[in-house]
Design brief:
151 residues; mainly alpha; two-stranded parallel sheet; 8 helices; 2 strands; 3% strand
């Protein structure tokens, strides 16, 4: 899902929970920011692969990769491995949940991350019928074993 949609949905969700008095302005701001900035793993991946810190180059590279991916047939996509994003998996959510057990305010990070995941999963299911690529690092690594990397 493109960042503009995460921003829009995160803003709507955060505004609603603030409006209905469920959370304070600080808590809703944390939820909103967490729902967006979880995508920093995409930028981190770019920095590691390209050894380039430029946000502009990252955006251009990402949009080119997206267009290339969208042009592939389902058969071509099935031969390619999914990309690993360190924050887009159930293991990361589990670590965040464990953090909430020791530091309760982290619950607002977890809510933002979950919001992001829900919209990512909806988009993935809508596009490809599955979401396992972003579900678990272990599933991703197993699925990628005999596939070539995209990009």
């Amino acid at each position: 899902m493109l960042p503009k949609w995460h921003i829009l949905f995160g803003l709507i969700f955060s505004s609603l929970i603030y409006f209905f008095g469920i959370a304070t302005i600080t808590q809703t701001t944390i939820i909103f920011l967490a729902s967006i900035f979880i995508d920093l793993d995409h930028y981190f991946r770019f920095v590691v692969i390209k050894k380039d810190l430029s946000p502009n180059n990252f955006w251009k590279w990402s949009m080119e990769a997206r267009e290339k991916w969208l042009r592939l047939s389902p058969q071509e996509k099935s031969k390619l491995g999914a990309r690993l994003f360190i924050f887009h998996n159930v293991e990361f959510l589990l670590l965040t949940f464990i953090l909430t057990l020791f530091y309760f305010p982290a619950i607002f990070l977890l809510i933002g991350f979950l919001l992001h995941f829900i919209f990512d999963y909806i988009a993935m299911i809508k596009k490809s019928g599955h979401f396992l690529d972003k579900f678990s690092i272990f599933i991703l690594l197993k699925r990628n074993k005999k596939r070539e990397e995209f990009g």
